[in-house]
Write a structure and sequence with these properties.
498 residues; alpha/beta; Aldehyde Dehydrogenase, Chain A, domain 1; Aldehyde Dehydrogenase, Chain A, domain 2; 6-stranded mixed β-sheet; 20% strand; binds nicotinamide-adenine-dinucleotide; Ald_DH_C; Ald_DH_N; Aldehyde_DH_dom; oxidoreductase; oxidoreductase activity, acting on the aldehyde or oxo group of donors, NAD or NADP as acceptor
Length: 498
Amino acid sequence: METQHSSIPIKLNLSNFIAGKFAPPSAKTFPVVNPATEEQIAVCSEASVEEVDQAVAAAKRAFYKGIDGHKAWKDVPGAERKALLKKLAELMQRDLDIIAKLNSIDLGAPMMASKALTMGAIAKLDWCAATAERITGETVEPKPNPDGSGSNLFSCSWRQPFGVVAGIAPWNIPAVSFVVKVGAAVACGNTIVYKDSEKTPLAGAYLAQLSAEAGFPPGIINVIHGHGVPAGEALSLHMDVRMITFTGSCVTGKVITANSGRSNLKKVCLELGGKSAAIVFEDADLPKAIQNAFMSFTRNSGQVCAAHTRVYAHESILDQFVDGLKQYAARVVPGDPMLPDTRMGPLVDSKQYDRVKGYLAAAQHEAHFLHGTSDPVKNKGYYIQPTILVPNSDDVSVVRDEIFGPIVCVMPFKTEEEVLARVNDTEFGLHGGIYTTNLSKALRVSREMEAGTVGINTGIIVDDRLPFGGWKQSGSGRENGTAFIEDFTELKTVHIAY
Ligand code: NAD
């Protein structure tokens, strides 16, 4: 199954990649659409339940026995896993421009942002590679054996892979999603069946191809395409999938968790949505706070899980703050992602466009518009301009719901105690921002914020060496750092009498 549009820079196979080969095209297919032009650019295989079974069976065989004469993946040492992951990272670096362009074509991210995202993905893969040799357990002080035999006990714990892991990804960061799921699973010694989002299958398809070139034995990395139902559902219900790493909406995260309970109680790690807040105190470095706040809600056209979409500005600096934000907004006109000067592209598809438009319409009754409009004019492409709202209260949909578009709500506050209560009054807990030049206040407030990551006088930073994930309904488990090892491995305790 090949792409049909000249703007895709390479021949790309959009069939399922199972046991080291692209399978024949599936009976059902779905279109891939460029959100900047609304043109269909490719058709992609839609994995059936049987094809999901084939992918899981290949991953299981590769783990326990090995395929085509390769040794069982469970017996492959960390150093070999590291070398393969490093090779894949090198190939991604070689093909950086191609991967970035694929991200831009189906997601709509501007080329400059796509390149930065792809470079971030390569760094993450390098980190996973390095971690493959650092899968460690614990040892404890030897002690007398309590069985009365007079022998002593040496005891330790090991971390071992689950076997088959399933990865289910969202559409907003395609190459990064592939790397954090596939890289982590494989570094820890698992095999994986990875399902990309149906909205952005191009980068995953290309990375499947690169994984074969990197020398991964068949069945270690399997990539399937398709919608939540049947493909995602079949993975989450599968009895041979032992762990699932999911990134996406809270609604789907709950379905996947329930499906784990309905099947084999597979371990579920969730990276879910957010409605993150930033607090701008009266003593903040305002130009920096304004610039970061603007970047935060407009990067990737606002389709970022950790985006600061609620900004609480102290009442004494509110006017200055919103004036600054409006000046940035006036300078950014969303446009063709392929042009070098474009800073903001379209939303990913018509469904996301309609969702965002729905919230803009609601905002007519819930808020006052400082920039943007409740009824955007639609030409070709799913473009929405940066929108700045001052809501009537904290209890309206534009403040409470994750919108996933370039919309920010700015609200005044008077005291630290008041603003913390308002910031934490949400079911989400992914990220938080604090702008102040008072270190004591910064540390005090960051301690009280209910969020997996807090940035003090900085925008959203994801450091590969440190964990990233959410509190409350923003998720469970962690990506990055060494925390992911805990999520992607089983623990075994071993006692030795001597
Ligand atoms: P989504 O939940 O609609 O879809 C995510 C994935 O789940 C897709 O691959 C989809 O096909 C699959 N899916 C849908 N229904 C399913 C089902 N019943 N069973 C199994 N799989 C199913 O989310 P989305 O719209 O693709 O992504 C946007 C969401 O992802 C936002 O909420 C965003 O905040 C979140 N996100 C979170 C992080 C994070 O690190 N916390 C990162 C990126 C995106």
